[in-house]
Amino acid sequence: MADGIRDKVAIIGMGCTKFGELWDKGPENLMVEAFQEALADAGIEKKDIGAAWTGTCYDEVSVGKSAIPLAATLKLPFIPATRVENFCATGSEALRGACYAVASGAYDICLALGVEKLKDIGYGGLPQNEVQWGTRLRLVFPNLTPPGGFAMMGTRYFAKYGLSPQDGKHALARITVKSHKNGARNPKAHLRREVTIEEVMNAPIVAWPLGLFDCCGVSDGAAAAIVARADLAKKLRPDPVYVKSLQIAASSGEEMAFTEWDYSNVECTVRASQRAYKEAGVKNPREDISMMEVHDCFSITELVTYEDLGISARGRAREDVEAGFFDLEGTLPCQPDGGLKCFGHPIGASGLRMMYEMYKQLQGKAGPRQIKNPKLGLTHNMGGIPAVNVVSVCIVGH
User: Fold this and answer.
1) Pairing of strands 81-84, 241-250
2) pLDDT for 373
3) Which residue ranges does the chain devote to CATH 3.40.47.10?
4) Residue 345: active-site member
5) Per the CATH hierarchy, to which homologous superfamily does domain 9-123+221-236 belong?
6) Which of 58-67, 195-204, 219-228 has the least mean pLDDT?
7) In this structure, CATH architecture of domain 142-216+244-397
8) Residues 229, 9: contact at Cβ < 8 Å?
9) Residues 88, 297, 334, 394: which is the catalytic one?
């Protein structure tokens, strides 16, 4: 019987560029920078890598939707290379390919790399076009934008759980303030200025209840991970980080087809997290998980994710937020590196960027953001909109 990949794979090296408006760098520069950091961190040579996966969404990086840019840019020695894309969960999909390949016994060491150069294509998050969604989804949702799609989740959540507009907006603002405070401590983050509750709540509205500060940044950047067989990892470095679980769930169409789903949660997050906890042996995520990086494309997404992951009770996440439960100094820190909101969101790189923070935290190398004695870190990476999406949940630890 299949038993998953728990403790069969370890991360032995990671790299991440600074995210931001990197006008002076092309995707090749970013790939090289992330890869060189990961390679040096792992203490291996290129010839030791058995296979590679690269994640990117848009054509500014891809050549015929292939992995040739990765192999050519990094001068990999004619090894198998694969390009993957899974909306905003693309970076996690690349990591899944590398981890599963090692866990299967096919390879000893593999590379996963995610990169995006969104500033080169003018992507801003608001346009509704084929570049953003693809022709088919545009026909299904002809007027939908990402802020609009998640704003509807906000209004539905407020109504379902009886939150007044003021209380709901305040909880979302509290999430944003927390992430900006963390991001200000991170030299690789795109946005590094702290904000106040008042600034967030009084900011221009993008799609009510989401204001300017409730929406994540659009960035350039790259991140990379080198993974190895668990029994080999300790021979390569003293502090590898072990993969406890890596699960992905994709929408089956049920959310839109049946009335049981009411737009107040993301069902794929529920399903993927349940499988991830089972694979990792997590019985009580609220107590067992030490820290999280979740897909805060919008502040409402983070609020709902707390409940979908089983950390907060249904309708009670606001209470945890206001009590500081998810603050850096709180019980279960969330977005210690600033999250998508402040670190930025180069789509193909985001899932690996989340893992970069968990990796550094578990090694005690996160600097002023360091969490005390973390045991298990969780990453949640989501692509799509509340009604149609793909979600990755990965748990790593000692």
Assistant:
1) unpaired
2) 97
3) 9-123+221-236, 142-216+244-397
4) yes
5) Thiolase/Chalcone synthase (3.40.47.10)
6) 58-67
7) 3-Layer(aba) Sandwich (3.40)
8) yes
9) 88
| Tokens found for residue 190 | 């795109």
Share above pLDDT 70 across residues of the chain, in percent, rounded to a whole number:
94
241-250 and 291-293 strand pairing: unpaired
**Residue of 237, 236, 268 whose CA lies nearest to 250:** 268
| 295 given a catalytic annotation | no
pLDDT of residue 137: 58
Q: What mean pLDDT comes out for the span 149-169?
A: 97
Look at the block and give the residue holding tokens 């084929």. Answer: 130
Per-residue pLDDT reduced to its tens digit, 255-291 = 888 878 999 999 999 999 999 999 999 999 999 999 9
H-type alpha helices, the chain? 27-42, 68-74, 90-103, 130-133, 135-140, 146-160, 165-183, 197-201, 230-236, 254-257, 267-280, 285-288, 299-308, 317-322, 339-343, 350-362
Start-to-end CA span in the chain (Å): 25
pTM exceeds 0.90, yes or no: yes
Which entry of 190, 295, 345, 380 is annotated as an active-site residue?
345
